[in-house]
Amino acid sequence: MNTFTKKSLHVALAGLGTLGLAGAANAVMVNPNGLGQVLIYPYYTVRSPAGAGVATYNTLLSIVNTTASTKSVKVRFREGKASAEVLDFNVFLSPQDVWTAAVEPGPAGAGAMIETADRSCTIPSFTPNVPVLFRTGAYEGDAVKDNSLDRLTEGYFEVFEMGTYAANSVTAINSTHANGVPKNCGLVTDSTAAAEILPPSGGLFGGATLINVLTGDAFTEDATALVQFTDVGSYSNTGVDTPNFTNASPAIGAAVSELGTIVAGTFTSGGNLPERAVTLALQKQTVVNEFVGEAATLSGTDWVVTFPTKHHFVTSSGATPPFSSPLSKSGSCDNVLLDTWDREETPVTPGGPDFSPSPAPSGFALCWEANVVSFKALNGSGIVHVLGSANSYQVGTGFNSGWARLTFDPTTAYTVPDIATEYNTLSIPPVVTPLAAGTSFLGLPTIGFAVQTFVNGTLSDSQGRFIQSSYGGNFGHRYTGPLAGTPLVPIAP
């Protein structure tokens, strides 16, 4: 049973709701406050930076329901090369509930598996502390030509709220905890959950920790939250690849632009309408962060750069914007440009500062859906692969430490909505500007973060006792948002 309701005006982006325009008010967008209907976690890994089976990561995750409503959510893990589904299941979150789990290396260090001691109802049900293996079936024989268990060891995952349940429903009554245990998960069934479902209400957040006990590293990540994804309550059984980004409704996306205004696009013609709207909401022109690579500490930096909607636009036979190449054994590659500066404003050119503008940036391509960029600093220590990713790219910087900017190729990375509008909430009063037909939004749908690690060798305290000398940290990416046209092109009066 699907139940419809009118979307509320959401003000996740400052000032947008005050404009009172139906199109923008109903647009799917990233909530900077971190709560939403859809959560996208940029990365999971059970890989090892030190060699197969040595010092492997585990990924600890949580999903939090901040509302007073019972919810059903779809949890789906996707491997990192082509976003093939490797496991999905449904979780029933009672009011203010938290669901936790751990992704760990598979048996004998091969593949990956998930286990939980959480008592919340799930379909299928988990046996506490008994792992469930990730599966290869969805990618066997695909264009990547990699059927191995190793492909399961890294990727990203997503959580879609399917709907809510009235407090007196069978689903809510039996999934609500009393003394830490749901009343009766046996009565929470697919058929009952589908029949009783009400529209989603949002209010989810989540995070994950990439923890490596032997190296002393623990990197955290926040899930990216999408609001106003849909106002339709729709339950999907496990094993059905829905909900996904094709379920966004209506097909309108909005994002904070490079200029600090809000740009929105409505998609009414062509294919991939909902996916293009979500892509616009996630679209970035550039990714900006720091790097460090000092010889004394054997430090290294990895950037995670994930494209969550890419698989909707790329097949073995072709690709549609904003992506540019078909999927093959070597991936589906999109050009990026890399600019680097040291901590004293020096660009990448060796030999000291240069006149402005700085030299042309170096270029390479990102070919997978969950990519890891490993920075090789000019320190003589070689490259440090912090996460040990198989989907990694080594890039030179010319410096020990500094900052870098990835820029996506504007000739291919773009979306073109049928109706485009700029909302300048920085003006008083706010200014609404319709944009010319064919206006392009530049960039790729991107989420991620950076991790740094430092290895100080054997250290001891004043008593001669050995102490932990390796540590790490993580940093969220900064971005410039999509720019509509170059420059913005208003419709002539």
What does it look like?
It is a single chain. It contains four helices and 37 strands. It is mainly beta and 493 residues long. It folds into two domains: 31-243, no CATH class; 250-493, no CATH class. The protein has a seven-stranded antiparallel beta sheet with strand order 2-16-3-11-5-6-9. The protein starts with a strand and ends in a 13-residue tail after the last strand.
Keywords:
493 residues; mainly beta; 7-stranded antiparallel sheet; 6-stranded antiparallel sheet; globular; disordered N terminus
Q: Percent range for helical residues? A: under 10%
Total number of distinct structural domains: 2
* Main beta-sheet annotation: 7 strands, antiparallel
- Taken as a percent bin, the fraction of beta residues is 35-45%
Shape: globular
Number-wise, the strands total 37
